[in-house]
Here is the input.
Amino acid sequence: MQFYDEETTYLAIPGPVPIHPSVYREVSKPIYGHRTPEFRKIVAECIELLKPLFGLRKGLVIILTGSGTSAMDAAVRSFVEPKDKVISFVNGKFSERLAEIAESCGANVFRVDVEWGKAIKPELVEKYLDKHSDAKFITLTHNETSTGVLNPLHKIAKIAQKYSVTVIADGITAVGGTFVKQEEWGVDIEISGSQKCLGIPPGLGFVGLTEKALQMLENKKTYAYYTNLRIYLETWLKKKDFPFTGAVSLIYALHRSLKIIHAEGLENRFRRHAIMAEALREGIKALGLEIFAESGYESPTVTAVRYPKGITDDEFRSLMLKYGILVAGGQAHLKGKIFRIATMNLIGPREILMILSVMEFVLRKLDFKPKESGILAAIEVFRRYGI
Ligand SMILES: Cc1ncc(COP(=O)(O)O)c(C=O)c1O
Here is the structure.
């Protein structure tokens, strides 16, 4: 028996995430010229609406057409010059990608590996910055989507400031999902993407830049072209325009989604994500499964869960899909060992209870006997928060 198809399946993967119907309508609106005052006005409004999500007042958010990795490429390639010393803290797939991009710029990359699932601690950052006084940059992910770990970026950035090192942080599943305060924390370069916490389809990348980062760009010589942020900045300052054709339909969608985000209020949104993630985790633990992320550093937007003995990735995720929920597996060496569920954008008690009950149904089908009720554990979390 088939119950669901691609259009009716619930997306629990960490991007793309479920999107508000009014955002879909924007994507299907007739497009207009990209070099017009009307379109430029929408872009300018998007930038103003994006800035608080990055914690920027004086800085700027640059929008690129491309997936999140295009923004990672731009953020690294526009600043890092050949032979620059870069310390890359790697505790997952995406922090590894930042290190690889820095290497591809000819930088002198010193890679610090941290066990996947563990957080990058400020003391570790201090230890390496103390040893490498010639370091110019550090790279890390803010929220490591591959493991469900939220790194303590605010504390790490303070240490980087002490050593006058520029932070390049990948906030692709943080921006719009949890607090990001670039100016207050001293994170000069933070990256984001469209299909996660910003609630629109894939295809846009973002780089948040503080005033210091904007000044640094002025004299940078890089080998980037399409992802050279200096070109974007100069065009913006001179013409309030994109250097290349803007992704008109995605910008319409972004504009609408940002209005929805601000109508909810950032604090409310971040609190909602955090509570939903907590309810999900408590429900999962009650079922008898183990959360992959180090305790105290669990992400509010992505939860990674270890498979219990006897449950295979293939069986579990195929059955979850059969019963209407698309769940992500593990990446790289975590393939087959963990699965991942997002709590981003349109997520509330209804989705959490649905995910937990379908999960219990599937686990029972696979002869796993849940320890306790996941639903009751989640309800208890909701009760504690007055939901
Ligand atoms: C933290 C992080 N960085 C980078 C990426 C890559 O983004 P994209 O696949 O949009 O290029 C992702 C996507 O999951 C991500 O979560």
